Amino acid sequence: MAEEQKIAGVLLAGGLARRMGGGDKCLRPLAGVPLLGHVLARARPQVGPLLLNVNGDAARFAAFALPTAADVVSGHAGPLAGILTGMEWTAENAPECEWLASFATDAPFLPGDIVARLMAAIAAQGAEMARAASQGRAHPVFALWPVALRGALRQALVEEEIHKVDAWTARYRVATVDFTAAPHDPFFNANRPEDFAEAERMMGEMQ
Predict the structure, then answer these.
(1) What is the residue-wise DSSP string for 56-87?
(2) pLDDT > 80? residue 4
(3) Residue 20 clears pLDDT 90, i.e. is over it
(4) Buried (b) or exposed (e) across 165-189, using 16+ Cβ within 10 A?
(5) Alpha-carbon distance 149 to 117, whole Å?
(6) Which DSSP symbol is given to 110?
(7) Which of 139-143, 160-164, 191-195 is the least confident region?
(8) CATH 3.40.190.10 fits domain 3-206
(9) Cα gap 68→5, rounded to integer Å
(10) Which of 119, 127, 165, 195 would be 140's cystine partner, CB 3.0–4.6 Å?
């Protein structure tokens, strides 16, 4: 089995997209393709089983032909809820995968080698998990998580009401992998309508 097939992935699309005025931000078109399509093209080759974490009627994502799962904890608890959902889905549906890679679905330029680099950093540093960074800023939802920590994460979310990623990961040894932002930050995220115009401009420069 190839190494990437032993790593599951979760695409986090369960947020409320408040800065976009609500709705499914990742379904908005970018250069004629839904934003999620750009993210999927970069994430899919890096992992084995891949889950789409969405809330509400999953039928609106049917065109992507991905398994879907809503947050396993209620109350729109943020990205940690999506990560827990991915961990528990992986444990049940892909028990051969000991690791879960998480991807935000508003970053169309995410690195094509992010999973490999995160895994290498965990091995090199003896860390328990790893996250990406660029321009001096950490990107905690672009990360690699041990599925074995799903019980600890559920306890933190449900019993301790910890919703911030950094508040939970502070308990563990976390490797941080820095990615160059030249010529463009690979973690540029399309949160607002004007960001989509900027992303299209960036795509034009990359061609």
Answers:
(1) S-GGGGGGG---EE--SSSS---HHHHHHHHH
(2) no
(3) no
(4) beebbeeeebbbbebeeeebbbbbb
(5) 21
(6) -
(7) 191-195
(8) no
(9) 19
(10) 165
Q: Give one DSSP letter per residue of 129-196, joined into a string.
A: EEEEEETTEEEEEEEEEEGGGHHHHHHHHHTS----HHHHHTTS-EEEEE---SSS-TT----SHHHH
Angstrom distances, CA of residue 146 to CA of 105, 130, 135, 173, 174: 21, 10, 26, 12, 11
Alpha carbon 197 to chain centroid distance? 23
- If pLDDT is split at 50, 70 and 90, which confidence band does 193 have? confident
The token pair at 105 is 């679905």
Q: Do 135 and 173 contact (CB within 8 A), yes or no?
A: no
Q: How many other C-beta atoms lie within 10 A of the C-beta of residue 68? A: 21
pLDDT at 65 over 60: yes
Residues 6+ apart with CB under 8 A from 98: 6, 146, 147, 148
Which amino acid type is present at position 42? Answer: R
Q: Give residue 23's pLDDT.
A: 63
User: What are 139's two structure tokens?
Assistant: 């990107």
Peptide bond before 111: cis, by omega within 30 degrees of 0? no
Mean local confidence (pLDDT), 71-83: 90
Q: What is the arithmetic mean of pLDDT over 160-186? A: 95
Cα(37)–Cα(31) distance, integer angstroms: 11
Domain ranges of the chain: 3-206
